[in-house]
Amino acid sequence: MDDPLLLAERWAGEGQGVALATVIETWGSSPRPVGSHLVIHADGRFQGSVSGGCVEGEVVSEAADVIATGSPRVLAFGVADETAWRVGLSCGGRIRVFVEKVAWQWDLATLAELNALRRQRRAAILVTDIATGSTRLVREDEVAGDPLEGELAARLRSGRSGLVFEPGKDEVFLAVHLPPPRLVVIGAVHIAQSLLPMARLAGFDVTIVDPRTAFATPERFPGCDVIAEWPQDVLPRLALDRFTAVAVLTHDGRIDDLPLRAALDADCFYVGALGSRKTHEKRGQRLLDAGASVAQVVRIRAPIGLPIAAQSPAEIAVAILAEVVDSLRKRGTQP
Amino acid sequence: MDDPLLLAERWAGEGQGVALATVIETWGSSPRPVGSHLVIHADGRFQGSVSGGCVEGEVVSEAADVIATGSPRVLAFGVADETAWRVGLSCGGRIRVFVEKVAWQWDLATLAELNALRRQRRAAILVTDIATGSTRLVREDEVAGDPLEGELAARLRSGRSGLVFEPGKDEVFLAVHLPPPRLVVIGAVHIAQSLLPMARLAGFDVTIVDPRTAFATPERFPGCDVIAEWPQDVLPRLALDRFTAVAVLTHDGRIDDLPLRAALDADCFYVGALGSRKTHEKRGQRLLDAGASVAQVVRIRAPIGLPIAAQSPAEIAVAILAEVVDSLRKRGTQP
């Protein structure tokens, strides 16, 4: 078990003293992003990383004090850049790390709930008061009406953790937990052969589905989850959700229509369909006839991809991926 | 020598009978795009491809007749899809192939000039009358005033070859020759580690330049042309031109400014610079102070990348690549 938050829950659940260290601020170049965790057991074991090795030793040592006293603290470090400028200029970065005792100021149930939400691929933000160490967990559906509503909503789109001042209160750290975004492509066509590797580079978990066994092969899609079956047979397994993008690329309603409808029903953050306007008109009519709502049909991105005048299949893949990222990062702000 | 047009020039220059076959139209799925060439020597040797192997034999056989008679002809083929639908539906495509005798209706000098332009990375379109086989070569700077001006200009952006009707004349085939687009990235930073492999997938030749030897390593940029030197020392070697995109990503004027100015002077189709608006204001002032024109400075894409709310370095890479493709395919139509 490598996940620091799962490990923190387990160790604390066993009644052990556990500290959690979190990168709450960075300047310049820093090896690990804001929100990165290191979990430390009272016996000195630790897991995770706040700096890629530069300052972990000191954090672990401070964590022993935090476990003993229960008082959270903020540590500041200058991080020498290991990959220093070899031609005369040294550059580096600084980080601030918050160290708290797990399940001390706050309940272990909060950590367990956060981990449960993560397992369920649901978004949430853990709000921690840096001065006191007290925390509260805000699920995505609880953001409306929160004192930090605007800030929380923006961070649920960007996925960025960070420090803010809660109105009339102390500085709080917002640890933003978004499910890893996924991209499911229906149609193992030429465009998909570019789209999937690009999407993997962009941080998406990718799955390709096509019942045509000659198209959906591991050779054509190295490193991808390749499913050479009819969409209707694998839809439950795909577990489409709000952090999944679905792009249908076969032009063939017998393959595309069902997963398209399923993506709309699952409120996937992106639903795109390849095809001319004429093809898409017919498709829209079929979906309406099959019971889809007008609101659903107009959500489909078609013609697919940002209008960058893409020519080759690989350029169309770029247009689609840019549209997927745009939809992910502007969730809830678009009509 | 694998290039069919270079081989055609060489063989014809040696006084041999040579035929050139060109895919002029496709329907459905076809293995090779419109504009693909197969060159056939009178002795039966051939190079290139019009169908990935399906119909080459028949084309070579017809080519012997064309070489003997000098009369061009159009061949039509149904192409069975090798990657056929394994679940019941057969799908396939059709292609039309134009076969002509090289340097017969037209001068060998035309072919030599086309090949010279290709070597110089200059765009041109070879216009061939399908009925007569007569050709004329239109360079990019000769498009204005041409009877096909609008069509030629659009195809010099899209890069797509194809058939059109010349006003009051026969059907003509436009063989569009664009130099392979290149992307030069200054700054071997995190964004570049995603941008370069994505750009390669999208069909760009990629080069990365950074004087910081720890950043610019083959390990960080597998398969890329990695140059760990100061831009000023390698600019002549980079041979920036109108089919090159330049993105500067270091934030450091000592590294970025010179190649930025060189990219503007070379009229690169895309010039982008990473940095906040404030950073870019200072950069713009430095460039003006150094003698750049206002028209040049406003051409710089900054903030870099399409506005897709990209968060991670890899997402910023997607935003940049989409902007590069957009600029390539809308060359000359933007302010």
UniProtKB/TrEMBL annotation, chains A, B:
InterPro entries: MoCofactor_Util/Proc, XdhC_CoxI, XdhC_Rossmann_dom
UniProt xrefs under Gene3D superfamilies: NAD(P)-binding Rossmann-like Domain
Record-annotated XdhC- CoxI domain positions: 11-78
The XdhC Rossmann domain, residue ranges: 183-324
Position of the signal peptide: none
Protein name: Xanthine dehydrogenase accessory factor
